Amino acid sequence: MFKLTTTTAVATRSLLAKPFAAVAVRSYHPKVIDHYEKPRNVGSFNKNDPFVGTGLVGAPACGDVMKLQIKVDEDSGKIVDVRFKTFGCGSAIASSSYMTERVRGMTLDDAAKIKNTEVAKELCLPPVKLHCSMLAEDAIKSAIKDYKRKRATASATATASSSGAAEAAAASA
Amino acid sequence: MSLNRLVQRSHMLRSLRASSVLNTRFALSPATAALHTSARRLQAAQAATEETIDKSTLTPSPDSLGFKFNQVKDDEFTRPVYLDMQATSPLDPRVLDAMMPYMTELYGNPHSRTHSYGWETEKAVDGAREHIANLIGADSKEIIFTSGATESNNLSIKGVARFYKGKKNHIITTQTEHKCVLDSCRVLTDEGFEVTYLPVGTNGLINMKDLEAAIRPDTALVSIMAVNNEIGVIQPLEEIGKLCRSKKIFFHTDAAQAVGKIPIDVNKMNIDLLSISGHKIYGPKGVGAVYVRRRPRVRLAPLITGGGQERGLRSGTVPAPLAVGLGAACKVALDEMAYDHERISHLSERLIKGITDKVKHVHRNGDPVQSYPGCVNLSFAYVEGESLLMALKDIALSSGSACTSASLEPSYVLRALGADDDMAHSSIRFGLGRFTTEEEVEFVISRVVAHVDKLRDMSPLWEMVQEGIDISKIEWTQHA
Questions:
Q1: What pLDDT digit, counting tens, does each position of B282-316 carry?
Q2: How many Cβ atoms sit within 10 Å of the Cβ of residue B1?
Q3: Of these residues, A11, A33, A62, A156, which one is catalytic?
Q4: Contacts within 8 Å (CB) and 24+ apart, B350-353
Q5: Share of chain B above pLDDT 70, in %
Q6: What pLDDT shows up at residue B346?
Q7: CB neighbours (10 Å) of residue B116?
Q8: What pLDDT is stored for residue B420 in this prediction?
Q9: What structural domains does chain A harbor?
């Protein structure tokens, strides 16, 4: 008799727990909302600055475009400052905002190793939003690539003629 | 004699029990009254903007399996302003009043022939049928109750096609139809029918010449919606009906978003089949109707067979309370159509003007004249729709963007208009209705203006446009 009552109570509780879980899945995770409402490091650097790398990934037709810029200290090879601008859903904005926080102070090599899964895990992105985290990974990689390309061109020109370095960097951007 | 006495007795019983029905009604009235306390709610909404989404969502109380429920507390948190009338509309309190007796005391099966319980319910269902017929200029015998517009559309399209299969095997529809029409057509394609999907112009309207050219000797049905659910455009029903009648082709229209909102006359417009939904017109959810013309007769193969109810076209007991509710909703809609239309037009103009005066690069999707004013679809260039929806958490809205789906495909309706993909991703639908207030519209304008500006400051596309870069010329990297 007693046992029976307990089982019923448990069954009722688990039944009732369901709608609340559904609500939690449907709405955004608090971490996403936090990044979305208070985005970190929004803005732009001058893309012609020789120490700035710019990554522009995504496409308007897909509903996501991410621009991520890094400012690098040439001596230490570390990222000293980061900025982003994103056209996309809340998860895309949160992913890029999180990425800017994550890479600040990192060396370029370490930053290039950040995987999208880390972003997705941190922000608890649902499967349909995983592409947002992939875009953030693409964005940082693209920014690093841009910076490295700029430096390679700059140093090449510097050896040829040190006076033309600034123009060459500007032209390559 | 005995019959009369029985009816009398049931009337007496009803009046005796009326007080208890009234009590039930009053117990519910705080919830329905909440619809109208928008001013108070608005103040609370502004104060509660910092609240997270889950807090502003009403969750059922642990004992809602019984009859108790938690009152929405205005002072603690508030629910968003509802501007999604194309998705569903709130139940009009007058409709609830009409339904309540059939939810409680008058529970007879309308198909019961042998006792007064059945007769009184049948009478109510027939009265509801009359109200629905009046709204569209039909005869009450031509109204068939269904579970909603999706079933009505399925029955009309599959029913006509399957009945006339062999003689005729071609169907014409448009690219911007509701999914249930498109999917019914897809199923028929598998069954050997041919379907022509008419394109629409950039304003969302079909070209009559395209329709005329698509008609073939074996065309069985033309199915074109009255009011589009995403962009609100009104197709030229009268011209389509005239053309179809002259070619002796049946004309079906999905009027789920049109009935009760714009005048519809099935005889003047030569409509042979018409789908109606209950919950789009302040009626109950789970009920709809289909108008099936009797002269000249339209014959259908039923989807659901059984007891042969509804002229054998839709077996199954008619849900009397829901049918009565649909009838009451149609009656209220007919009585108040002119008033509602004027009010909603005014609110709609105010919304559009309020937003476009303060925000640049806003495009209204769909024809601005040939459309229902309660459906305003705007594209905010360089701002992604879903992120704007997230910012507008105090407002319940819908977006044409489908970032949530794995395909990343934006609305097929907006694509059919030839809208650029990025504009389709930037679209938001504002659905105004009978219970929308001026204060709510003002609140929405202020919120939209503030958040579009904020999101544009964050948008790389907006930045490029400010720098004079043509973003359509950039080669974008496509990601998986």
A1: 999 999 999 999 999 999 999 999 999 999 999 99
A2: 5
A3: A62
A4: B350/B438, B350/B441, B350/B442, B350/B445, B351/B376, B351/B430, B351/B432, B351/B441, B351/B444, B351/B445, B352/B376, B352/B378
A5: 81
A6: 97
A7: 18
A8: 79
A9: 31-143 (3.90.1010.10)
B427: alpha, beta or left, given left = phi > 0 and alpha = psi -120 to 50? beta
Range of lowest pLDDT (A32-46, A109-123, B41-55) = B41-55
B224 within some domain: yes
Domain that holds residue B166: 100-333
Rounded-to-integer distance, Cα B293 and Cα B291, Å: 6
Quick check: B340 and B434 in contact, CB under 8 A? yes
Q: What's the total number of domains in chain B?
A: 1
Best of B50, B54, B467 to substitute, by most chain A Cβ atoms within 10 angstroms, is B54
> What CATH number does residue B145 fall under?
3.40.640.10
Q: Is A124 a catalytic residue?
A: no
pLDDT at B285: 97
CA distance B420 to chain A (A): 8
User: What pLDDT digit, counting tens, does each position of A70-128 carry?
Assistant: 999 988 889 999 999 999 988 999 999 999 999 999 999 999 999 999 999 999 988 88
**Tell me: the pLDDT tens digits for A125-158?**
888 888 889 999 999 999 999 999 988 888 887 7
The encoded tokens of residue B68 equal 């108790």
Q: How far is B69 from chain A (nearest CA, A)?
A: 14
pLDDT at B35 over 50: no
Separation CA B477–CA A56 (nearest Å): 8
d(C-alpha B377, C-alpha B65), whole Å: 38
- Higher pLDDT: B128 or B68? It is B128
User: Long-range contacts: B205-211, Cβ < 8 Å, 24+?
Assistant: B205/B233, B205/B235, B205/B236, B205/B367, B205/B370, B206/B174, B206/B235, B206/B236, B206/B240, B208/B236, B208/B239, B208/B240, B208/B243, B211/B172, B211/B240, B211/B243
Beta bridge partners of residue A6, listed in sequence order = none
